[in-house]
Automatic annotation (TrEMBL):
This is Enoyl-[acyl-carrier-protein] reductase [NADH]. It comes from the Bacteria. Keywords: Fatty acid biosynthesis, Fatty acid metabolism, Lipid biosynthesis, Lipid metabolism, NAD, Oxidoreductase. Pfam families: adh_short_C2. Belongs to the short-chain dehydrogenases/reductases (SDR) family. FabI subfamily. Its EC number is 1.3.1.9. InterPro entries: Enoyl-ACP_Rdtase_NADH, NAD(P)-bd_dom_sf, SDR_fam. It catalyses: a 2,3-saturated acyl-[ACP] + NAD(+) = a (2E)-enoyl-[ACP] + NADH + H(+). The keyword Lipid biosynthesis applies. Pathway: Lipid metabolism; fatty acid biosynthesis. It comes from Maribacter confluentis.
Amino acid sequence: MGYNLLKGKRGIIFGALDENSIAWKTAQTVHDEGGIFVLTNAPIAMRMGQIDELAKKTGSQIIPADATSVEDLDNLVEKAVEILGGKIDFVLHSIGMSVNVRKGRAYTDEKYDFTAKGWDVSALSFHKVMQSLYKADAMNEWGSIVALTYMAAQRTFPDYNDMADNKAYLESVARSFGYFFGKEKKVRVNTISQSPTATTAGQGVKGFDGFISYAEKMSPLGNATAQDCADYTVTLFSDLTRKVTMQNLFHDGGFSNTGVSQEVIEKF
Ligand code: NAI
């Protein structure tokens, strides 16, 4: 492929941990489309992950930032503009983590310190990222900001635990900040609601294998892969979607509008 859809555009990509990460595939695809960017992740994730390899492949610099730290984010925004040589056109927020899930706490047995930490990382961080960009006036007009979410924000998936609540908050922030960013800076803000995807974060959800197979059988087009998500995200970063904003966009092979499929009926 390669349509040069992002030629001349500059961005920040959060959340590439390893080659399975949705952000990793997105960085590669953005690179193929001519965009330039800085990569960022939490300092701890950098020690665990392979982000250096991605940086080399895409000719990018890495700026560590904990997405819950306003100080880190302000520094990231300032450095990104400096390194890339101008204001930012696209941002991908691809961050999620629930401490309750990690520690095996049920939804009915949350430890609220864990809940607050997970919410800060997975949901409030999106507001923090946008507020840093907004206050620094670091976004170009007609820029595009995307965060990744999951349908558990609308419908109950019991094992998704408190991440469901975090995603509902994240989607709301996209609408609320999208209003101000649209009015004042002509910047669009959207969330992509992605199919279950086999990544580190995805596989942390209890019963993930059953979950992903069920979604595959329920979706007329099958599950959207991480690469499909990267491709879709590129369209939202491009100039071809300039009036799409404040939306939660389902990218799930039709899962969200399917009541039941023949394959699932046949299982009974
Ligand atoms: P991943 O595990 O590869 O990516 C999650 C990233 O969040 C990691 O790079 C991690 O280092 C980063 N992160 C965690 N704490 C952070 C912090 N304090 N500051 C900065 N970064 C931090 O997994 P994946 O699946 O690529 O996740 C990306 C996004 O896609 C998440 O928002 C996730 O909820 C969402 N999503 C994933 C689905 C799946 O089934 N994998 C389905 C729908 C949405």
